[in-house]
Design a protein that fits this description.
Blueprint (H helix, E strand, L loop, with lengths): L4 E7 L6 H10 L3 E4 L6 H5 L8 E4 L9 H12 L4 E9 L2 H11 L11 H18 L2 E4 L5 H12 L8 E8 L10 E4 L20 H8 L4 H21 L4 E8 L5 H15 L3 E6 H4 L9
Parallel strand pairs: 1-3, 1-4, 2-3, 4-5, 6-8, 6-9, 7-8
């Protein structure tokens, strides 16, 4: 094999965010396979040469899973020419894992007939040697799904910036700036739909609200200058090896103007071929917290 193939083992306790991490890696261009029996891995790699980096979800759900087998498999594969092997361990505190299982009312895979607590404790103990040997550990105890995505991108997005991931967020200045923003734009100078009784209960994704915001004479020049600024900077960010860019749009309540701008800018960047995700922080606060899967 003339080139080095990257293989990432994704593991950790149930409920810590493995599925979310595997999905992010797939978005970054990895070939992703979850819950593959460990006995089939070497047969998989004996097949056609890997054309993309490979992300494998290996955990206690696998029928042939064992701590010793996992560590041995990682060691064997690392010893082969042409493979770069990394173990990504998604960690989480026991009390938060228990709360997540209680919220979803799912049975724990290691204690289907008893309390989730027994399963959480059993799995954490089983995985302890793997946690200690992991190359990359991400603690998801205090992370939501969006923050976990950023962490995975920070560790595994291509270093050449070719897969620069752009996150566009809306927020309310009253609640403070979201963590990790690289660029912030203030939308409070635009006409506020909140003061229109028919629009107040809606948000910036509603076509009527978006039309109201777009009708402000100051909207179009602002939108065009922001998108042009971002497009002009993206090549420079890539050249410097930046893998993630987070752009925020804020207004008073975080429901109308900032949402409309975030949606419009995200669409413009996506239409230009960029990898874009979008988040509306204040709208998320109206519903239960989104937890990593």
């Amino acid at each position: 094999m003339s080139e080095t193939s990257q293989v990432v083992f994704v593991t950790g306790p149930s409920g810590a965010g493995r599925s979310t991490a595997i999905n992010v890696l797939e978005d970054l261009g990895f070939e992703a396979i979850d819950n593959l029996p460990m006995g089939l891995l070497m047969r998989l790699l004996d097949g056609p040469a890997l054309r993309r980096p490979l992300a494998l979800g290996l955990d206690a759900r696998n029928r042939d899973f064992s701590t010793e087998g996992f560590l041995d498999l990682s060691k064997r594969l690392s010893g082969l020419d042409g493979f770069q092997v990394t173990t990504l361990y998604l960690d989480c505190s026991a009390d938060v894992l228990l709360r997540r299982f209680s919220e979803t009312r799912r049975r724990h895979p290691m204690s289907p007939g008893s309390s989730p607590l027994a399963g959480v404790e059993r799995e954490l103990e089983l995985l302890r040697p793997i946690r200690e040997a992991a190359d990359t550990l991400i603690d998801t105890t205090a992370l939501n799904v969006h923050q976990l995505r950023r962490e995975v991108e920070r560790w595994f997005a291509p270093s050449d910036g070719s897969m620069l991931a752009i996150s566009v967020e809306s927020f309310s200045f009253k609640r403070g700036l979201p963590r990790g923003l690289d660029m912030v734009f203030d939308c409070r100078f635009l006409a506020n739909p909140y003061w229109q009784p028919t629009l107040r209960a809606s948000n910036g994704r509603d076509p009527a609200v978006a039309s109201f915001v777009h009708a402000d004479p100051q909207y179009l020049p602002f939108f065009e200058r922001v998108t042009e600024l971002l497009r002009s900077l993206l090549p420079a960010f890539r050249h410097e090896g930046k893998t993630h860019l987070s752009v925020g749009f804020g207004c008073t309540g975080g429901q109308h103007r900032s949402v409309a701008l975030a949606e419009a800018v995200a669409k413009a960047l996506a239409d230009a071929g960029e990898q874009v995700s979008i988040r509306h922080r204040e709208m998320e606060r109206r519903k239960p917290d989104v937890r990593p899967d």
